[in-house]
Design goal:
2 helices, 70 residues, flat
Length: 70
Amino acid sequence: MSDRVQAVNRRRSTVRARVEHVFAQQEAMGRMLVRNTGVVRARCTIGMMKLTYNLRRLAWLKANLEPAMA
């Protein structure tokens, strides 16, 4: 591969790595299957899974970054 292609691949792979980890954790929480009657309830369930992920991430960041800042 040329240097240009390798540079493009490196940039894309870093973005993919960050995004795929997020989706993998969300998939593990919800198993990619929403068993609800109606679109509104399904959206609510998915929203709660996203909220749970964000709160878990916030708790992890606070626990791991606060000692480094002190």
